[in-house]
Amino acid sequence: MITLADKLITTDRATIPVDKLQHVSYEYLTNIEGKKEVKVKIYTANPNPVIQVTDHQTLVTFLHHLKLEKMGLSE
Predict the structure, then answer these.
(1) How distant, in Å, are the alpha carbons of 6, 23, 29, 63 from that of 45?
(2) Coil, strand, or helix at residue 66?
(3) What digits encode the pLDDT tens for the residues 14-55?
(4) How far is CA 27 from CA 10, 17, 23, 38, 67, in A?
(5) What are the angstrom distances between the C-alpha of 21 and each of 24, 33, 56, 67, 70?
């Protein structure tokens, strides 16, 4: 799970204010069952990134909402 709502990024491991976000990177993986997954790393001032494994569509939705949030736009 990785979502963006009310200026907060929420993952299974952490809740991060959007204004603390420095960088997002992702890597496509194939798990043991052959299912495609995406490993997302969210970087803040903390030296250790928050790592979340999710699916492609969740990543696309998250990045879309993040772009709108950072640009101050709404759908």
Answers:
(1) 20, 10, 26, 20
(2) helix
(3) 999 999 999 999 999 998 888 899 999 999 999 999 999 999
(4) 19, 23, 14, 6, 19
(5) 8, 32, 21, 12, 10
